Amino acid sequence: MTAAILISAVPALAYLLAWRDAAPSLPRTVAKAGAILILALGVSLTGGPGLLVAALVASALGDAALAQDGEPPFRAGIVAFGVAQVLYITVMGGSWPWAIAAAGLMAGAALPVPRPPVPRATLALIAGYAVLLLWMAVTAAGRALFTGDAAMA
């Protein structure tokens, strides 16, 4: 797995240095999504949990969508990242009610924060994703704090 982490740095750095501000293209998309796909391959080849592989693939699909311009790819990216968060939560064995409540409270606290105008459908996706992301973060922190195990199941 260490090799996969090191190899995944190549497309990540390529994206950062060469394509982050470039127009959408196949090389840009491959560089953006490639790092995560390499990690998914590493997890798979080392016998890691299938749900973790699926979560990483969903994250890579989200990155591929965000490498494009426009509202439809942005929405597709949010949905893919949302699926990834649900899979990460499942891998960590967490659907602790307090984690869900904490995520909802944190996301709700962000509602009054000024933001640029976005279509309602997109705003709903962003809000849903924010709750999932916070839920995953609280679950990971809870797992580390209360079980002493920060590793995935």
Write out key terms for the chains shown.
single chain, 153 residues, mainly alpha, 6 helices
In short:
With 153 residues, the chain is an all-alpha fold. The protein has six helices and no strands. Helix content is 76%, strand content 0%.
Number of DSSP helical runs:
6
Query: What is the terminal separation in angstroms?
Result: 16 Å
Percentage of helical residues? over 70%
What is the H/E order?
HHHHHH
Which stretches are low in confidence, meaning pLDDT under 50 for 5 or more residues running? Answer: none
Mean pLDDT: 85
Strand-residue proportion: under 5%
User: Which structural class is indicated by helix and strand composition?
Assistant: mainly alpha
Any idea what the shape is?
flat
Total beta strands? 0
State the major sheet: none
Q: Over all CA atoms, what is the radius of gyration?
A: 17 Å
Oligomer: single chain
Walkthrough of the structure:
This protein has 153 residues and is mainly alpha-helical. The chain is 76% helix and 0% strand. The longest helix is centred in the last third of the chain and has 28 residues, at 120-147.
Topology:
Layout: H1 2-19, H2 26-45, H3 50-66, H4 71-91, H5 97-109, H6 120-147
Helix pairs in contact: 1-2, 2-3, 3-4, 4-6, 5-6
